[in-house]
Amino acid sequence: MVFTAFLHCGEEPAISGPGGSGTIFFSGCNLKCLYCQNYEFSQLKKGKPTSPEGLAKIMLGLQKDGADNINLVTPTHFLPQILGALSLAIKGGLTIPIVYNTSGYEKKKVIEQLAGIIDIYLTDLRYLNPALAKKYSSAQDYPQVACESIKEMYRQCPDPEWDADMLKKGLIIRHLALPGYLQESKNILTWIKENTPKALPSVLSQYQPYFKANDFPEINRRLSKAEYTEIKKLVEELEIDGGWMQEYNSREDLAGVHFKPDSK
Question: First CA to last CA across the chain, in angstroms?
Fold first, then answer.
């Protein structure tokens, strides 16, 4: 099931590039974040059935249109079909890097099987606190599972490989800062620094209370400027470089804005 596919220019600069990232958004997700901005297709599963042959055609079409890479968003639950489509696309002339864009809620043994297939891992690290993971994403084991899988991604891609400003191989770890949970963000950034020092961190400040977040008063707001400033200060103190810190911006011209729901 595919919701949409297009040249996405709102991802990290190292994968968007001048041509845009050839992003394919799959319907469904193996994590159930109650604040998901893409819930219409990640949880309500809007989309269209697509065959492996059809998916291969989409990939080749994106490459023809100038995509810098093929960006597979929440691909895990369709992985056998996607790998079949990749095989067809490569036989048809696909040569650009493959990005595995995931929530981080992955079994280590699945990531192990992707060695040599995936060029760039683009993973979230949302929580280290199991109670928060259970409360907001119905996945108490998320911290353990995500940390194990991220370490395997790092084992496969320990050193970023570049072609000018474009990433050709490597690991990007995204962290979406949640309002009211500054310490959790600090713990996560410290974990990244200690366990995956050459990975490229991407700290996101774009959180908005979408989907069911308004049922939880403590996260029914944007990140404050003071919270953003504290996180930015920590990034500087940890001497985290080579990644990205999203600018604090009250507007919605952020990654994912293409999928802003009709109503919250």
Answer: 24
Tens-digit pLDDT profile for residues 80-115: 999 999 999 999 999 999 999 999 999 999 999 999
Sign of CA dihedral 207, 102, 196, 183: positive
Q: How many residues does the chain have?
A: 264
Domains of the chain with CATH codes: 2-259 (3.20.20.70)
| DSSP 8-state secondary structure symbol assigned to residue 222 | P
Helix (H, G, I), strand (E, B) or coil at 41: helix
**DSSP notation for 57-107:** HHHHHHHHTT-SSEEEES-GGGHHHHHHHHHHHHHTT--S-EEEEE-S---
> Which DSSP string do the residues of 175-192 spell out, in sequence order?
EEPPTT-HHHHHHHHHHH
> Tokens standing for 82?
């996607």
Angle at 2 between CA 257 and CA 17, to 5 degrees: 50
Question: Who contacts 130 (Cβ-Cβ below 8 Å, separation ≥6)?
Answer: 140, 141, 142, 143, 144
pLDDT of residue 239: 87
* Rounded distance between C-alpha atoms, residue 218 and residue 236, angstroms: 27
Kindly provide the residue ranges of all beta strands, DSSP E only, lying in 192-235, ordered along the sequence.
Answer: 200-204
Q: What is the C-alpha R_g of the chain?
A: 17
Using pLDDT thresholds of 50, 70 and 90, give the confidence band for residue 260.
Answer: very low
d(CA 128, CA 26): 26
CB burial of 72-111 (b: ≥16 within 10 Å; e: otherwise) equals bbbbbebeebbebbbebbeeeebebbbbbbbbbbbeeeeb
